[in-house]
Every structure is written in structure tokens, then in C-alpha cells.
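<purpose> Linking amino acid order to shape
<body> The protein record starts here
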Amino acid sequence: MLLRLAGVAYLAAIAETQEEPHRVPRGAAADLLRAMAASERAQAELVECRKSLQVCESASPSSEGAISRSQPIRSSQLQPGSPEAPDWPEGYGTLLRFPFGIADMKTLKEVARELWTSEGTAADIEDEVSQLGFRQHRGMRCASEMVGVHPVGGASVRWSAALWESAQQWCSENKECTGIMVYVGSNTMNCNSWCGRPQFCDGHIDAAESAGVEESSEWNLWVKDAAESGTAA
């Protein structure tokens, strides 16, 4: 019914304009003509929008993961098993030759264990006073660190008895050195930096009076005063 009325109004508006070309349509006929003109403009804009969308889709991966052939394919855009994925490089997946002419993994592991036998860590030292006379204070570090002074060991260096002896000798030979701090914590990154790199102190230390020291669960302090007082074990 509404369509019929709209059609009648449209025909009436056309008839009016044909009879009187300079007469402007009025009432429902005018409203209908304006609505039809607006609809035509909207349809034209929709067509342009769809064209723009097609251009965008052709320049980027679709929602299903398809890849435009007009652009180089990034490896991050490829799905496992994709036909566009490049072939594996020649020799990929083959093991490198074992060192020392070793032919099997079992023998290699045995050699590795022999070469890299751990000597424990500074936390394993049970002596209260070292052989060179440094007294141990667990869970402490000095407040007067010799910043930037690392004459013994280094980052990624494993702890060893030889390293510990070298640290004591260096401190004993330097009057400014009053103690040695060794890392005993469990943090992997910190251990990589400090387990094999002792730190040294240069200020007055009196652990009994809590002078020049501070508590730390990751460090043990070895004070030089035991060596000077002749209390070495």
C-alpha cells in the first residue's frame, strides 16, 4: 500500500514539473524526491567504499590468512606447512662433528664432566677462619665496597679454590683492603656476574659491633682483621 502511494506521489510530482517546469514540487511529493536523491547519493558512496575496501584487502592478508602476491612474503606471515614457505637450507638438522674426534654422545658427555667438574661455590666454605687468616661472617657484606676494583675472576667465571686463594692474596698485599665479599645467593643472573668475581672492602670493619657492615642474604663477608691479629687457623 505504501509503495503504491509513493508511486502515485512520484508520478504526480513528475506531472507537475512537466506541466509547469518552473514550479517546485511541494508536500509529500517534494519529500519523496529529496529522499530518493539522498538514497542515490548513499548508494554511490557505498559503491566507492566497497572499492576502497577491495583495494585494502588486496594489499594486506585477509581474515583467513591469505597473503597478497603483489608484496614480498614475510616469514612471520607464513603458516606451518604453507606452500609459500622457503625450503630448509642445505644441511639443516644435521649434527656438527663432535670435538676431539669423538664419535658418540655418551663419550662426549664423559669428557665434558671431566673437563668441567665443579668445585662448589663460596657458600660451601665451612671454615670460620681461612688458611690465610680471613674470618667469615655469613649473611653480611661491607658498607665500604671498593667500587670498580675486580682484580680477581670475572663475569661468567666459575668459582674455584685457586680463585679464592688469589683473592685472599691480593687483599693481604694491599693495605687499603680490609675484607672480601663473596656471592652466595641463588639468583642465576647475579651468580653469572658475581659467583666468580669477589668484591673487596676498603673501610673499617668491626662485625661484632656492626660497624662498617650490613646484612645481606646473598653475600658472605671475610674480614682481614683475623689475619692481622694472628688468629689464622
In short: The chain has six helices and six strands.
